[in-house]
């Protein structure tokens, strides 16, 4: 699951997981290092990005985003 095996996923989740995958893909991290730094398992990361599993907790998403150098924010949308 390391850097050498990265390829474009065939089934990305829409929205935040697509963005998160792109940030990960462009980072210096492998699944192993991202998992170690964020506390989110390699298996969970792989499921998010490649299997379309969409039940990620906000805490895990925030932990991964933080490692990648981002933060989550709420933005009010007025229609």
Describe this structure as you would to a colleague.
The protein has one domain: 434 Repressor (Amino-terminal Domain). The chain is 48% helix and 0% strand. It has four helices and no strands.
Span from first to last CA? 42 Å
Question: What's the number of helices?
Answer: 4
Sheet with the most strands, sense and barrel status: none
CATH architecture descriptor: Orthogonal Bundle
Based on CA inertia axes, which overall geometry fits? globular
User: What percent of the residues sit in helical stretches (DSSP H or I)?
Assistant: 40-55%
Q: How big is the Rg?
A: 13 Å
| Total E-strand runs | 0
Structural class: mainly alpha
**Would you identify the regions where 5 or more consecutive residues have pLDDT less than 50?**
8-13
What top-tier CATH class fits best? Mainly Alpha
Which percent range describes the beta-strand content? under 5%
**How many domain regions?**
1
- Give, in order, the helices and strands: HHHH
CATH topology: 434 Repressor (Amino-terminal Domain)
Overall pLDDT level = 82
């Amino acid at each position: 699951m390391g850097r050498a095996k990265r390829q474009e996923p065939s089934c990305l989740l829409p929205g935040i997981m697509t963005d998160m995958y792109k940030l990960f893909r462009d980072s210096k991290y492998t699944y192993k290092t991202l998992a170690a730094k964020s506390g989110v398992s390699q298996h969970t990361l792989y499921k998010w990005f490649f299997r379309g599993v969409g039940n990620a907790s906000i805490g895990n998403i925030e932990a991964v985003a933080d490692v990648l150098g981002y933060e989550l924010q709420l933005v009010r949308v007025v229609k």
